[in-house]
Amino acid sequence: MPEKQNIEYKQSWRDDYLKWICGFANAHGGVIYIGIDDRGNVTGLDDYKKFMDDIPNKIVQQLGLVVDVDLHEDARGKKYIEIKVPQSTVPISYHAIYHYRSGSTKQELKGTALYNWLLKKSGNSWEDIAVPNATIDDLDMETVQSFLNRAITKDRIPASAADEDVYSLMKRLNLLTSDGKLTNAAILLFGKQIQALSPTTSFKIGRFGADSTDLLFQDVIETNLLTMVEKVMDKLKVRYLIRPISYKGIERMEPLEYPESALREAVLNAIIHKDYSSTWILLRVYEDRLHLWNPGILPEELSIEELKQEHSSYPRNRNIAGVFFKAGYVEAWGRGTNDIINAFLQAGLPEPVIEESQGGLSVVFLKDIYTEEYLRKLDINDRQVKALLHIKEYGSITNSEYQKLNDLKKTASTTELVDLYEKGLIKKIGTTGRGTKYIFSARNGR
């Protein structure tokens, strides 16, 4: 059996492995086998009797844990030890360091990650913490009323909620602590000045030139979360994005250069799922792409690939997500990422590139499928990339131009052009022979 999230194999015992036991206890529990190699083969232990005495004692003394330590024997008579580590209900440290098992790796929890984990272990999160001295006067009544109108219209709260006072509404939305104080989530969602909680609650947008060091201009959106998405979208449409003009019959069409519904969904996701104890949401706008990054990695229940498939919703900020749901901005079905991807594909644009990066979630939206960065990820060679970039610049390429561009003989050139054709990247126009040109395939939305 291979190693996985809750199983670890070690050929012999070292006290350093107490870190792994600590990591399992702080996560979801697990099993460590001593006397088995990484491939799951029993290698055996000669001094198993000593280990059977030492290991349980060291675990109790160093970690304060009582675990099951069992001795096993395979068909060849080789002994190995099984250490069953239960999930701990309290945080466990080893030499004052908190370890955590994530996937098949062990991590040391530090800084913001440790703070949030300790909150979670106590049954709380950053959004649940009381804001000292905050009162109803710190809430923006226009935002409160707008929320009420939307939520009642969407039939997600009863109409009678309109007759409640604001304090009762906050209680209905789980935005009060047990002793009746406004939480971080309440101020974030409805507050007049959410930057009082932290300057990093803002949403930063920047227009860049050739790379991330070339900042041309920027805006900082400073408003409560329920009005933030519209202000971000308005700023993008007015200052950062263009509307290419086209016609459908006599009707003038001016859609954004990126699917607007997908961008709105992505901005909403970033706002709702952000780790608000961390840094800013950043939206970098380049000539050929948008790069949206928000702090906070995916929940343990989801991977990047699972995020792109049918999946359940695991909101980082459950009360913030609940208010956005009641206001009708989102659904609670975990479909947002799928909707974003489908909107881009239907528009003939590449699937957005989603990655975990620098402690957050990164989404890159490509405006042009024929960027060098994108092309180099395809199953084609460098010469074919050069040819596609040539078509992008000049509109077409011939076999002879391909030969000259790549210093190839005609046979090799023909083979590589045919390969691009069969992959659906280009199509032929003109007669066979010298009159043949190759242009981008309509199958790629161009």
UniProtKB/TrEMBL annotation:
Residues 3-109 form the Schlafen AlbA-2 domain. Gene3D superfamilies: 3.30.565.60, Schlafen, AAA domain (3.30.950.30), Winged helix-like DNA-binding domain superfamily/Winged helix DNA-binding domain (1.10.10.10). The lineage of its organism: Bacteria, Pseudomonadati, Bacteroidota, Chitinophagia, Chitinophagales. Pfam families: HATPase_c_4, SLFN_AlbA_2. InterPro entries: RecG_C_sf (IPR038475), Schlafen_AlbA_2_dom (IPR007421), Schlafen_AlbA_2_dom_sf (IPR038461), WH-like_DNA-bd_sf (IPR036388), WH_DNA-bd_sf (IPR036390). This is Transcriptional regulator. It comes from the Bacteria.
